[in-house]
Design brief:
Helix 1 crosses helix 2. The protein is an all-alpha fold. It starts with 5 loop residues before the first helix and ends in a 9-residue tail after the last helix. It has two helices and no strands.
Length: 69
């Protein structure tokens, strides 16, 4: 479970280290988790979009160029 959510665990560790008292409230924990999950979602989405576009470019090479005129 920890390995599957390593980004969240690391975000919580960073937040704990940055906290003046070394403690987080429940609301702070929720905010850190939400932020880490949002970041992961955006990264996954960005990589997916880049991969999709790369595939489009690769497939475009298979089509002949039509000349207009």
């Amino acid at each position: 479970m920890i390995r599957g959510n390593l980004n969240v665990v690391l975000a919580l560790v960073d937040a704990l280290v940055a906290s003046p008292r070394g403690k987080l409230t429940g609301e702070q924990v929720d905010a850190v988790i939400e932020s880490a999950m949002d970041r992961e979602h955006h990264l996954t989405f960005d990589v997916g979009c880049c991969l999709d576009w790369w595939l489009v470019e690769q497939n475009a090479d298979a089509f002949p160029v039509l000349e207009r005129g």
